[in-house]
C-alpha cells in the first residue's frame, strides 16, 4: 500500500507529547501530521515532530490564517500549511516558501480562487455539511487532477462513500487524537483508521 492520503489533525497537542505521538502515527502508516495553531505552543510541537519524524513524514500546521504564521511554520521546520479558509495571500506566501498549501473551501468559487492562487490541494470543510453528494456535484466542475480532502464528517464509517464521490483523502481529528491520549491509544486508533482506509481503497479499486 502506498502512502495513505490521511492528514492527522493533532489539535491540542503539546511539545512534550509531540514526538512520541508523531512516531506512533508514522509507525501505523499515517505520514502527514498537522498541528493546529490554536494548540498550546504549536510551533514548539511542529519543531519537535519535524526533528523526530521529518525524514519520514510531512509535518506542518493547521488553522493558519496569516502570512506571518506561514513564516513561523517554515521556521519551525514545517512543510505543510492547512487553513480553514481560502486566503489567496496565505496560499501564495506558503507556495513561495516551498511548502504545501491546503486551504479550506466550501463552494466552487472558493475552490477556484484557491487553485488560481496556487493551492497544492483543497480541504472540503466542513465536510459534514457538504456531504459526499456535495463533493460529487463540485467534482463535475473542478479541473481534472484537483486534489480534494474531506475534513469534518469523514471517518472510518463513511470513507467508501466519500471515495466514491471523488475524495482523494481525509483529515482526521478527534477520531485519532485528543489531548492527553496515551501513546498506545493513539497507535490503536491510528491502526483502526488505516485499516478502514485501506479496506475502502481496496473496495474502490
Automatic annotation (TrEMBL):
Domain of life of the source: Bacteria
Pathway entry: Carbohydrate acid metabolism
Record has Phosphoprotein as a keyword: no
GO molecular function terms attached to this record: lyase activity
A Pfam family it matches: Aldolase
Keywords, in A-Z order: Carbohydrate metabolism, Lyase
InterPro entries xrefs: Aldlse_KDPG_KHG, Aldolase_TIM
Stated family: Belongs to the KHG/KDPG aldolase family.
Subunit structure: Homotrimer.
Protein name: 2-dehydro-3-deoxyphosphogalactonate aldolase
The organism of origin for this protein: Donghicola eburneus
Gene: dgoA
